[in-house]
Amino acid sequence: MNQEVFTRKRDYLLLLPSLLPLLLLFVYPLLKGFVMTFQEPGSTAVTLSNYIEFFTNAKYYDTIWRTLYLVVPAAILELFLAFGITYFIRGKMKGGGLIAGLTIFPLTLGSIIIDMAVIAFFKPTGWFNTTMINIGILDEPFTLVYNYWGAFIALIILGVAFIASNLVGMMDSIDPNLEKAARTLGASHWVTFKRVFWPLIRSNVLTVFALNLIMQIGVYSTAVIVGNPASETRTFVVVAFEEAMRNFNYNMANTVAIVMGVTQLLVLAIVFAIRKRGFVGSASTFK
Amino acid sequence: MAQALKSKSFVSESTKVEINDLTKMFGSTTAVQNASLTIESGEFMTLLGPSGCGKTTILSMILGILQPTSGDIIFNGQPINQIDMSRRDIGMVFQNYALFPHMTVAQNIAFGLDMRKINKAEKKKRVNEAIDMVQLTDLGNRFIKDLSGGQQQRVALARAIVIRPRVLLLDEPLSNLDAKLRKEMRTQLKKLHNELGITTIYVTHDQEEALSLSTKVTVMSNGVIQQIGTPKEIFGRPRNYFVANFIGYGNFLEGTLVDVQDEHFIFETDKDLVRLAVKQDEKHQVGDEVILTIKPEMVEIITDAKIGMNSLQGNITVSDYIGSATGYEVETAGGRTFKINVLGLNPYALGEEVKLYLDPEKLLIIDKE
């Protein structure tokens, strides 16, 4: 018995080779960065001045609002679009694979190429505005790049792809017989969705939603390339990058990063609190 | 018990189901071809056949998941093809039960009553009765994942019955239970049907289940109905080779009826001219090309009496002892193999020479197609 326990404890040493890089490359910088937020540049004295500066100077605290104002509406719209598409093509629909493929494809391109594509498509002389003016819907080009909407569109494209890539499998994990059972018991399509399909997929959907949301709170390249990083799309990372690379104020950069991290955790907590109010178990009971 | 239950709330009005010339095509493949059958109200009809024979397709069309390519499904004289599946009032037990995992047992059972906007007091009463009926008293607040397979199966049954369905459909409901439980559930199902008298359509590939449960059996193969009859008719007088083979006949001999002697046909096999006497029936006449079959348990192994017509000589090639019986395979001089089941363990050794007697009264004439 004792021998066994001893052996087990010693076995944990086998984790060391994989834990060591993690400790050195992630945990140490994280802690170091966290400590730096309580110090002035070039000093080791503990102070709250960075946080006081962040929450009293509009240049900094505005980023919270600006990031959330860009990312939260985008994430909600992404969820609706991705859910709609994947719900529609679930099961054995013909051409479903193609639609899913096209929806998820932007993930393979990455943020910067999507941003460039959005610029090419939506700039004042791009296809979108040219077409709109030619068919007479618009009189003059509508500004859709280098502002809030440019970043919004780019986020939507990637966000929908990310959420859809996760939802495709989840939709199929819900036994179609459950919906058939509900229908034979007298439920309409809508009631079947409301009382059977949605409660079962809800927790997974909210998890993916939360994941996507906190990923997008860290948006940088889109905000810079296709947005307006000086004002409308001045997100957390834009400010943190500016502090670190232009002002060489690593302490402030870390402070911004910590506030961003806390914001992400809060968002996560809110979404998971909502998630816990419904059914979170497995969608299969069959033995 | 039956009387007591009848006064309760499960007995629905009886429904006669007619299926007229029903065909279902998937692209160019025909899943069901011109199927016609009538299920009298209160009857227990089993659709029996191997997987892919179209039985589940028929069930899906009655249920409304699939639209027939042509033909009608009629409940009490009223075609239901155009009625949405949510308005057909059919109780369905799925093969994997399809119980809602996010609801308790009671909520699952109450689902159909919720859809019918039954008032609270009545709903509670009916759910409790249903729970008692399937012997799940006190489990009403459990979630489905906390139930065993057999209990889940009973919840599925209760959920289907509580809505007072016009017709009860069961899609291989016992196939996922272990052998002992399956037998138990079979008895319960039979009892329940006797008590409630709901028109029931049961789909299975297990001939034992079909014969034991049903008042009528429909045997299907490749989308075509092969035979409809009572279990006795199906088992005693299978119409053709497929039906006979599927419900457990063995020992098929192809040949021709060549003569009549003392109310017996004389049958001769095509290949090696083995002559056998077989009891005359009305359906066949001399000159018909037929198949002769006999159940393995009807073949007798004899010593030296009764030698003559209908006895064959052979060697035992396989001996398979399974406790209550022993299965032998005997190869005759002509190279034919006969399957024989003997009760208990009979002391025949491998390679031993034995004589087989095929009783003319027990041989059965069936059609080739």
Number of domains of chain B: 2
Mean pLDDT of chain B: 88
Question: Structural class given helices, strands, pairing of chain A?
Answer: mainly alpha
| Secondary-structure arrangement, i.e. CATH architecture of the largest domain in chain B | 3-Layer(aba) Sandwich
Number of strands of chain A: 0
Number of helices of chain B: 9
Beta-strand share of residues of chain B:
25-35%
Order of helices and strands of chain B: HEEEHEEEHHHEHEHEEHHEEEEEEEEEE
Quote the beta fraction of chain A. Answer: under 5%
Please give the alpha-carbon distance between the first and last residues of chain B.
Answer: 46 Å
Helix content of chain A: over 70%
- Looking at this structure, what is the CATH superfamily of chain A? MetI-like
Strand order of the largest sheet of chain B: 6-7-8-3-9-10
Whole-number total of structural domains of chain A: 1
The chain-level mean pLDDT of chain A equals 91
Q: Mind telling me the CATH superfamily name of the largest domain in chain B?
A: P-loop containing nucleotide triphosphate hydrolases
Oligomeric grouping of the chains = heterodimer
Structural class of the secondary structure composition of chain B?
alpha+beta
